[in-house]
Amino acid sequence: MNQPDKEQFVNWAEEIRQSKKHAFDELFRAVYPQLVTFAASYTKEKSSASDIVQDTFVALWQKRNAIDPDQSLKAYLYRIVRNRSLNYLRNRSSEISQPDIIVDDELQTEEEVDSKRNADELSEKFGEWIEQLPKRQQEAFELSRFDGLSHDEIAAVMDVSPKTVNNHIVAALKQLRIFYEEYSDKK
User: Is residue 88 domain-shared with residue 9, that is, in the same domain?
Assistant: First the structure.
């Protein structure tokens, strides 16, 4: 399924508000994977992220009569997932575990291995650099670049103005560029 557009979210909001289960099912299937990825960016555990998203959809169905089709349903879902993820982290007592890494053991040429290693190293560096950003910049950047939210939707999730979202993203990009240039100079 293609990424749903703003109009599709409005239709789903109206239909879910009218207790139409098919619309709820379509919404779930369309955004569940992205929401799990988003929650996992906080929890670092796919199973807990999946539980958080499922609980989010249960809450959405229970509060379906209060859905406002004029408000972004997508931003609303991301806000709920974010808040529940933060609550999960606050309430959790055990250490955060890293997800299992799956290694592909296909035979590759030495050149392919080097190229993949360099790409993996750079990807890992970008991950580290993103984690070094101030939390609000990091959140705005990830919602924009990884989750595909608009500035207005991010503003609703983060409870700030779209201008503030833009400022966070511009500052994040500037800092990432600095990190990259320092890294490139060392190579």
Answer: yes
